[in-house]
Write a structure and sequence with these properties.
heterodimer; A: mainly alpha; 4 helices; B: mainly alpha; three-stranded mixed beta sheet; 7 strands
Chain lengths: 108, 287
């Protein structure tokens, strides 16, 4: 009985702790976070452009990231930079797969 | 022993025959064959739209149904490209500062030659479009080049197209591997998906001609350049072939290439070649 009570308390503590972890506010992004996210996005964007497969949305989201950072809103800047990186990577994937995939569309 | 040898020989011969029968197909699939490509391209549209007269494909969306055709015929009574045509005619005849004119740069004085553009320049090893040739003419005569997407270029090409109206498109591909490579590159560009919308030129103009995209009816790819340049109501003005490519790219959310980029020149070469035999109808008007 005592043993199960102790186990229940430990479990409750663990649950409370994990809940606290979940609801605790995430650390606000700072300039260093932004610079890391932006340089990764910029590199992917440059690669997409060199493949001649740049997307207009990548360019505008990257510009939005810079604008947010210039205004000191690093949370938004980091989120936008990550989005730009994801878009750029998707366009690189498109460029890579289309090297062969275009043939499936050809009229023969 | 003899039986075994004959079986072995038999199998070997069968394998060789099979190889001989299949290998040319593999080679043919990878070989650049513009004549076969053009035939297949035209047949695809002729079969998809058996009621459309072949020469009508050059009228784009207006060839797709009777209502659209009537709209176009009414439009042609007071064509919206008329101002550009008049301006182009005047510009074409006006001498440069050095006294020469555009006529000095082109065969046959630049009249009735639209159907031969773009062509493959064997000296340069690249495709030369009419727009590019016009700007080269200007620069060779000490004039500043025109924008490839704006009114002056559209006016000049409108006039030149008008002097070729009714003449069949007649694009040549010389026996030069670079010309074949340009054709193939243009074909690749035409079918390659790009932009966030993941569209190729073919997504709209091969898979969906005659269908609506929002309020517009999509034009078939066959003969799409025969009507260039065009007045587009959407633009409230004239547009060149370059402008059309740039706009298509933007609409699929792809960053457009620089005007007269190799890819644009090559895709113009491909699309013009596969429309060989269809009449020039430019300048055109589109919704």
């Amino acid at each position: 009985m005592k043993r199960s009570l102790a186990c229940a308390m430990v479990l409750a503590l663990l649950l409370a702790f994990s809940f606290a972890l979940d609801v605790a506010p995430a650390r606000a992004a700072n300039e260093a976070d932004y610079k890391t996210a932006y340089s990764a996005a910029e590199a992917a964007s440059k690669e997409a452009a060199s493949l001649r497969h740049q997307w207009t949305v990548t360019v505008s989201v990257l510009a939005a990231a810079k604008k947010a950072a210039d205004g000191g809103d690093f949370d938004r800047a980091v989120a936008a930079a990550r989005e730009a990186e994801a878009l750029a990577k998707a366009s690189i994937f498109q460029a890579t797969t289309e090297k062969e995939a275009w043939k499936a569309m050809e009229i023969r | 022993m003899k039986a075994r040898t004959s079986i072995l020989f038999g199998s070997l011969s069968a394998a060789l025959v099979a190889l001989a029968l299949t290998s040319p197909r593999v080679v043919a699939a990878d070989k650049v064959d513009p004549v076969a490509d053009a035939r297949a391209f035209q047949n695809f549209f002729f079969q998809k739209f058996p009621d459309v007269k072949h020469e009508d494909f050059v009228n784009g969306p207006y060839s797709m149904n009777e209502d659209m055709k009537r709209q176009w015929q009414e439009k042609e009574e007071f064509p919206p490209y008329e101002f550009a045509l008049d301006a182009g005619k005047e510009m074409f005849a006006t001498p440069f500062k050095n006294g020469k004119t555009y006529a000095d740069c082109f065969p046959n004085g630049g009249v009735g030659i639209r159907q031969n553009y773009p062509y493959f320049d064997e000296k340069e090893g690249k495709v030369v479009t009419l727009e590019l040739a016009l700007n080269r003419c200007r620069e060779a005569n000490g004039e500043a080049p025109y924008s490839y997407v704006k009114d002056e270029m559209a006016s000049l090409t409108a006039y030149m197209a008008f002097t070729s109206r009714g003449k069949p498109m007649d694009i040549k591909i010389p026996d030069d591997p670079r010309a074949l490579a340009a054709f193939e590159n243009g074909k690749r560009y035409f079918y390659t998906r790009r932009g966030q919308m993941n569209f190729s030129c073919a997504s709209c103009h091969v898979q969906s001609p005659g269908e609506r995209i929002r309020a517009e009816i999509l034009a078939p790819a066959l003969g799409i350049l025969n009507a260039m340049p065009i007045y587009r109501s959407e633009w409230s003005g004239m547009g060149t072939t370059t402008r059309r490519f740039v706009t298509c790219n933007s609409q699929t959310r792809a960053v457009p290439l620089e005007p007269q980029a190799d890819e644009y020149r090559d895709v113009e070469y491909f699309l013009s070649y596969v429309a060989n035999g269809l009449p020039i109808s430019g300048p055109g008007a589109r919704p």
